[in-house]
Amino acid sequence: MNSLLISRPALKTVIDQVAEVTGYLWQKGWAERNGGNITVNITEFADAEMAALPAIAPVQQIGKVLPYLKGTYFYVKGTGKRMRDLARYPMQNGSIIRICPDLASYEIIADEPVMPTSELPSHLSLQNYLLETGSTYKATLHTHPIELVAMSHNRRFLKGDELTQVLWSMIPETLAFAPLGIGIVPYKIPGSIELADATLEQIKTHDVVLWEKHGTVAVGTDIMDAFDQTDVLCKAAQIYLSARSLGSEPEGMTAEAMHEIQEVFNLPKKRPC
Ligand code: 13P
Ligand code: ZN
């Protein structure tokens, strides 16, 4: 086991949870090959010893300046690495990075020089936003949930909040646990700054973001929470497609029933910090 984790049981608990969740991603069928990626802000575990660790690979550019990432550290899935491998060996399929003082680059400090995910611009843009808004959220998750990606192949669900309304209407819990719904990002090249910027805009007003014909991005207090947010919406998509396979458009809960849920549960209409 890595020396950083041996002396930091609380950090090990966070990494163990990442490993647990990546196992679920594989079991769900959301993580073919190297599909999906994760970052977790672990700055709370940083101390003088961690600050003194030398870089073990050349400094890399993020592609953006992210001012709120000053002095931060992240656990990041490695590019090309499999979630099912990460579930067993998190420190060999991911690495710990430190943001450099220029706030536009990073260096790997542990355990091995595993290059971070190609979607790092999206993850770090969201992490920067979470810190900017004083959020307690620490984790970001990109994955490839089958039913949500399938629905993003239908133009109807890419317009306005049509997908959110349909998903909310499938089962009361969707509205209760994803009260901000799902934001849509039109197709963009994976790993691009354009994708990162568009994702950032959508997460400001939604629980989860859907990348057209690609996957989802969620934020959470921890990685389990980000997984749950995705799972709640994907379950609604599964119900929609199952009901649709009966041969007609599912009825969905009425607007009155959904309004009642919003009132009774006093659901937030915007993202709480
Ligand atoms: P990485 O292996 O670089 O994390 O890429 C996986 C992916 O899902 C890209 O969108
Ligand atoms: Zn992807």
The sequence of SSEs as H and E is HHEHEEHEEHEHHHEHEEHH
Cα(first) to Cα(last) distance is 35 Å
Derived from helix and strand composition plus strand pairing, the structural class reads alpha+beta
Main sheet record: 9 strands, mixed
How would you characterize the overall build of this protein?
By secondary structure, the protein is of the alpha+beta class. The protein has a single domain (9-264), classed as Class II aldolase/adducin N-terminal domain (L-fuculose-1-phosphate Aldolase, 3-Layer(aba) Sandwich), CATH 3.40.225. 40% of the residues lie in helices and 16% in strands. It has eleven helices and nine strands. A hairpin with a 5-residue loop joins strand 4 and strand 5. Helix 5 (120-132) runs parallel beside helix 9. 42% of the residues are buried.
